[in-house]
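Tokens in:
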């Protein structure tokens, strides 16, 4: 009779795990979460948040337990409650409506997204029509297009549309990009735009954020050594989806996304010698630890961290949260 049915098996198969670095939270995500937590601490629950603060259910549910209430639109926010705008940015109509209702609001838009907003406004003020490289319906794209009057920004989703989408012929052109795209995808689209419009104005510096670039570079550094890439992230997270694509393009035979450790099908790693693990910019490190714990159920892990860049950047909280005092 087995008195220890749950005792760990001996002689577990060895599995090499290449842990990509950097991975997980970026400075913009870290700042956005701190804004919600600090608002709850300072003003008391509930604090309303328009849209998911970042694209990760674990983070959202953690903040809900602390007293955050997530809503889709401002008409769900009571007049006397503080509201936070998500890290992805919002159309100008949203703070305008908040001001009209005299709502106290905090803007958690990532400063790198705000930089793209300012670029768009500068191009518009100089009479240029703007081509935005990005994914239709993504909150960041909705927010960026919403900085300017309707019809002044054309969305370009891929290289084919870069070659064929009708654009105004009576104005100079400029392009900007969503921050969370694949570096490789953007290169192809930009090349198509430059070929079609040799005089198009480009960003002074690539809009794709440092964190997206670094996480993709880290995946590329391990992809050809790994037989499977596990990306910790959410299905509505653009930068996490791009990591899956980057891994496969860079030579990894298979890449999968999981939201939590329990979601990982261990049979995928059966018979493999080496796998890679990374996390999107909105996924906390605790979820990476969950994946490793899940793998340890069936394997003896040998972990090697492969770091391609050190990230030291931080972003300040909004001025309203930097000093003590009531709103």
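Residues out:
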């Amino acid at each position: 009779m087995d008195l220890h049915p749950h005792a760990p098996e001996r002689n577990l198969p060895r599995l090499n795990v290449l842990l990509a670095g950097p991975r997980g939270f970026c400075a913009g995500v870290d700042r956005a979460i701190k804004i919600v937590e600090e608002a709850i601490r300072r003003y008391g629950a509930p604090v309303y948040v328009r849209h998911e603060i970042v694209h990760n259910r674990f983070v959202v549910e953690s903040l809900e337990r602390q007293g955050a209430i997530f809503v889709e639109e401002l008409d769900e926010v009571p007049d006397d409650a503080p509201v936070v705008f998500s890290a992805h940015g919002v159309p100008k109509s949203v703070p305008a409506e908040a001001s009209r209702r005299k709502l106290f609001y905090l803007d958690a838009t990532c400063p790198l997204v705000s930089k793209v907003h300012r670029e768009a406004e500068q191009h518009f003020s100089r009479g240029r029509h703007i081509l935005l490289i990005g994914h239709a319906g993504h909150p960041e794209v909705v927010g960026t297009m919403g900085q300017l009057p309707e019809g002044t920004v054309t969305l370009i989703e891929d290289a084919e549309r870069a070659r064929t989408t009708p654009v105004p012929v009576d104005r100079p052109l400029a392009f900007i990009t969503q921050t969370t795209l694949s570096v490789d995808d953007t290169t192809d689209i930009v090349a198509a735009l430059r070929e079609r419009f040799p005089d198009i104005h480009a960003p002074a510096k690539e809009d794709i954020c440092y964190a997206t670039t670094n996480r993709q570079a880290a995946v590329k550094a391990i992809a050809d050594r790994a037989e499977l890439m596990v990306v910790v992230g959410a299905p509505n997270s653009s930068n996490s989806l791009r990591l899956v694509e980057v891994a496969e393009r860079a030579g990894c035979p298979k890449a999968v996304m999981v939201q939590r450790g329990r979601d990982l099908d261990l049979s995928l790693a059966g018979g493999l010698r080496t796998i890679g693990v990374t996390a999107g910019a909105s996924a906390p490190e605790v979820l990476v630890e969950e994946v490793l714990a899940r793998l340890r159920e069936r394997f003896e892990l040998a972990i090697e961290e492969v770091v391609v860049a050190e990230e030291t950047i931080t972003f300040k909280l909004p001025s309203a949260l930097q000093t003590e005092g009531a709103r």
